[in-house]
UniProtKB/TrEMBL annotation:
GO BP annotations listed: propionate metabolic process; tricarboxylic acid cycle
All copies of domain MmgE/PrpD C-terminal, residue ranges: 284-466
Pfam families named in the record: MmgE_PrpD_C (PF19305), MmgE_PrpD_N (PF03972)
Name assigned to this protein: Aconitate hydratase
Domain MmgE/PrpD N-terminal: 20-261
E.C. number(s) listed in UniProt: 4.2.1.3, 4.2.1.79
Species lineage: Bacteria, Bacillati, Actinomycetota, Actinomycetes, Mycobacteriales
Catalytic reactions on record: citrate = D-threo-isocitrate; (2S,3S)-2-methylcitrate = 2-methyl-cis-aconitate + H2O
Protein source organism: Gordonia sihwensis NBRC 108236
Root EC class: lyase
Keywords: Lyase, Tricarboxylic acid cycle
PANTHER family on file: 2-METHYLCITRATE DEHYDRATASE, 2-METHYLCITRATE DEHYDRATASE-RELATED
Amino acid sequence: MINHEVRTRRSAEEFPLSEHLAYKIAQVAADPVGVPDETAEMIVNRIIDNAAVSAASVVRRPVVSARRQAQTRPVAGGSTVFGVDGSYAPEWAAWANGVAVRELDFHDTFLAAEYSHPGDNIPALVAVGQRVGADGADLIRGLATAYEIQIDLVKGMCLHEHKIDHVAHLGPSVAAGLGTMLRLDVPTIYQAVGQALHLTTATRQSRKGLISSWKAYAPAHAGKIAVEAVDRAMRGEGAPSPIWEGEDGVIAWMLGGPEARYTVPLPAPGEAKRAILDSYTKEHSAEYQSQAPIDLARRMRDRVGDPSQIASIVLHTSHHTHYVIGTGSNDPQKFDPTASRETLDHSVMYIFAVALQDGEWDHERSYAPERAARPDTVELWRKISTVEDPEWTRRYHSTDPNEKAFGARAVITLASGEVIEDELAVADAHPLGARPFARDQYLAKFARMAEGVIDPAEQERFVAAATGLADLPAGGLDALNVRVLPDVLASAPETGKGIL
């Protein structure tokens, strides 16, 4: 890996094109280096994972709305939309499928200086691959790049510190991944990356206070925008540049300012793209920093006994967990039993209370309005607080995978005065956890989410196509779509009439 220093440059300063971060990303994307077997295997796992969570979300209102929008754009020789037949405009298929993937907060994650869900790259690349008749090996190459670029940007540039939403790293990664898959040249990818970044920067109010369905829509929107950016760049259109480093660019006015310095690692020429192996998926449908606390609550449940005897619970955790999903956020909505599912998903206090009471976490039951409003849950929930512990913050940002941690130490004080303590550094499903996810676990997650939603024969057909991705011929990527049972689709809610 090569560490690249990135900073604002004055307009009058000599700054060769080859030094622009977007150009260096384009060079990585255009590098014809092969994909390691372990990277290709994990790409297949994440395609299966995305299908699993899409099956679980297929009739949720935001997903239905996005799907119906896409279905207003039929295109011969286009792309597929999850769950249904037909051929649609690729940017709209990327949109609909991106919402389905993201709706339940249930797919992969990478956390470092910033946070991300790099599986958000997959819908856009699959949609475009279907449109252009790419083969499975092309898709694998593109996704290896997309994961690499997003994860490397996440390692190097913090966005949330400046209240910029994390999808600002997703637009460039999708553009770069498409550049690899389509075998575009460096100048074209450079322009596409710049356009995608310029058009996908937004504030992170989408993840603050009362959180709405836009939380799921934001990455899908970034993917759609990136598809359109690549299309324009292929037609010869340009982008603002230098997009990160310019005097009026992203760093100067949206991130750390004219004096800020960032270090972004990128593969050297000829170096294989392995970043996907640094990421991890979710066993539970909840914000990633809640994964280990859910497992910790389940582990502590028997020792605690009757939850009504709890006087207080303090979760000692990282800066990010405390301020984003903990009491450090100062969001009263995180204690509101009538709050949206998206808000409850970002309340580690609610999540720990329910996991402690139930000994499980379910993507539907655990968020049901009647579950959130249960009086004994509300009482326990409001006894829980978080505090930042510098050691957990240090481990959160550690570059040593054996030290890096996203967990917490729980201190539970009972009414009797007895104190019960335990801690968990990583979730059970994490590569270093008690039950790491491998191919069998991804397949089991898909089978569990697809039960009653997708016909068993259709499940088998999809799994065969996904696991044989490297051998899918040109024009064969339509096999990655999954048809949902008609009666399930018929149960989808009405969403009102829009413009489209």
